[in-house]
Design brief:
about 70% helix; elongated; 3 helices; mainly alpha
């Protein structure tokens, strides 16, 4: 996977937090921490979209599809929307 270099600005308090996470061994460097935050945000958005899709499907009523087929379709659509 190719990488793009980014420069970000954080407050002193945020910088101390990131450094503390690195010191305790959770991350190897600042970039690992930021990439983990992005992945977690992507997962959170996918879960929100999935919840919205489930609510919409529930409002539509019964379906001819099995529960597992509905679940697989919902996960697939959520991943497409998150990108």
């Amino acid at each position: 996977m190719s990488m793009t270099r980014k420069t970000i600005t954080v407050t002193d308090q945020m910088d101390k937090w990131i450094k503390a996470q690195i010191r305790c061994g959770r991350y190897g460097n600042d970039s690992e921490y930021v990439r983990d935050l992005i992945r977690r945000d992507q997962e959170r958005l996918a879960e929100l979209k999935l919840g919205e899709m489930i609510d919409a499907a529930d409002a539509e009523g019964l379906s001819e599809l099995t529960a597992s087929a509905v679940w697989e379709e919902a996960i697939s659509k959520a991943k497409e929307q998150v990108g």
